[in-house]
Write the structure tokens for this entry.
Amino acid sequence: MIYIQNENAKQFHTTNTAIALGKFDGIHVGHQLLIDALIQEKSNGKNALVFTFGSSPADVLSDDVKKYIYSQEEKAYYFSKLQVDVLLEYPFTKEFAGITPKDFVEQCLVKQLGVRSIYVGEDFRFGNKRSGDVNVLKLLGEEYGFEVHAIPKKTQHGNVVSSTVIRKMLEDDFLIANQMLGNPYFVYGKVVHGNHLGNTIGFPTINQEIPELKLVPAYGVYASKVCIDKKEYHAISNLGKKPTIEGNQKLGLETHILDFDGDLYGENLQVELLFFIRPEQKFTNVDELKEQIHKDIKEMQNMLSRKNA
């Protein structure tokens, strides 16, 4: 996948594209309907391109920076797995916010990207003061010769699936958040060195740092899954700041992978969080910690057994 960010996105030119437009925070089940339809266009010889922004329009216009379900690196990784050809993260500025719907379509989508078909959600808005909608987009499609496909919203648990709802569910109901995401919430990033406590107590772990602007669920222990060399392993992960260890610890994800023995330092890995086991807690000594880890593994295995029964 070609991944283009920031000012380079303004210079990128291509032709014969099918484009999905949106913010795509979380790449949830509603987004996946757009991407699935987009990927089908590849069989017609079109390039599958996702057009999004490096910064949320709301962040730029309000100066109120919020956290995202997935970081830019995680979204790029996810889109690559979904077989998108090009991910274009266009720089959103206050100047760009003033562009008219027609100028956006003509300058960015038609002249720069050679659009032939567009996929958006049915409530899609764009252009200065959100003045453009699907009907405007379809009229511009007739003028410039591209098709517009508006994908209906997905509903689950009495709610329209949206990134806003999923953010709330990550705090209130992790299982529903995962269902709305369509795939387990994950952390993707490089394995870094930790304090090596796990090795000394017989539970070696991998450590990953959490990006500052990544939205995380409750701190605690989760049943998780890791794919290494195309093989899946069950694991338990602690999301938090390791209160048992002295000093101020950075927010991170520490994962013990069952039935695996190998050096993963420096590797980029995806750790999927399947379900919540217990809150993060501070232990008085390592024996107490070891005993709790055994209990956590047993609880994970029991929960997986009940799920698969």
About this structure: DSSP finds eleven helices and 14 strands in the chain. The first helix runs from residue 8 to 11. The mean pLDDT is 91.
